[in-house]
Amino acid sequence: MTKDDFNEGLLGFLDASPTPFHATQNMAGMFENAGFVKLSEVEKWSLKKGERYYVTRNDSSIIAFTYPGSKEYVIVGAHTDSPNLKLKPNPVIKEHGVVKFGVEPYGGVLLNTWFDRDLSLAGRVSYLDAKNIIKDALIDAQKPIAIIPSLAIHLDREVNEKKSVNAQTDITPILSTSEEFSFELFLKEQLKSSGVDDAVELYANELSFYDTQKASFVGLNSEFIASARIDNLLSCYVGMLSICSIGEDKPMLFIASDHEEVGSESTSGAGGSFLESTLKRMFGDFEEYTQMIRSSMLISADNAHAIHPNFPSKHDSNHAPLINKGSVVKVNANQRYASNSKTISRFMNVASSINEPIQNFVTRSDMGCGSTIGPITASRLGIETLDVGLPTFAMHSIRELCGSDDAYSLYKIILGFND
């Protein structure tokens, strides 16, 4: 696969995955096309050596794995969720001549980037069908249906000097001027567009707004990729393609978990049992399971803060990653990242053997450090772990920026672990 093919597929994946539900659905489709066999957590598993499998949880987390009989697995972990504005259960607000939707920020949203963007709505809806069965369906309006207009500078003369955003009052998207708007009818229309014609009663929903602007190349020589949800669908795409590119005889597992942006403490998050229970079903004997855990390695793949050319003081100058200069090994003395000298050395060895560049990131000692699924999974399983990221600008913005070389480089390194 060439870098151009890789990146074109990446842009398509980003555009087609406005929510974790859609990302998981798209990855499941990719695994189906690659010959992976679908498993269900509520059914008995009868795994066969030489096969490839995948399983989902909550429609928003997914695991794919090969099953060659080896215990020395390379596990790649990422997350499907991104900061966004989530619809509240009773969202409709009709006032001042418009219809608005009440929203709640999900994760560490960079709120000021959500103003004046063409927004659409997507996610999961639960409903009662004509046979009295509760079902779920994914919807995606796929067109701009809302906007959050900025307040004119004439009414806020100090906005360029000091700007704060009230999450309750300032970021309610505007949809319409029609007083006849019905949220129930709107949802039923969206369900019909998704092929659901027998929704008798609507129940709960998990819907998120997203920016309709497509992912694109940016720069004089297309050096950058700009898109929503680069954190962390970029790593999801790398992990997905990596496991689809190796043979059935190579021991590899890929997991993309939900809810990382809010702490991972959920049934489908890295703090839940999804990965552990899957591995225990793969290796039913406790001795074999323990041997596999201690013989394997987790590559926790998330984004990394590239040094911002307009704000260089925000970085430690000796640990300031550059865009398009390679994957970033993330280190933190207080275990906010799980990398250690052993896992770093193994990653460096593989990267060096195929002439792929790597960089290092350590946050400034006088600034707080974020974390990833790495320490969470390492603590739960006891598996040796490396935290690695791809350099990014504008993390948690509605439109993030990464390099057009780096993800392809990490993809090649991961494949190098299986050579």
From TrEMBL:
GO molecular function: aminopeptidase activity; metallopeptidase activity; zinc ion binding
One GO-annotated biological process of the protein: proteolysis
Keyword field: Aminopeptidase, Hydrolase, Metal-binding, Metalloprotease, Protease, Zinc
CC cofactor: Zn(2+)
Protein name per Swiss-Prot or TrEMBL: M18 family aminopeptidase
UniProt-listed SUPFAM superfamilies: Aminopeptidase/glucanase lid domain, Zn-dependent exopeptidases
Cross-referenced Pfam families: Peptidase_M18
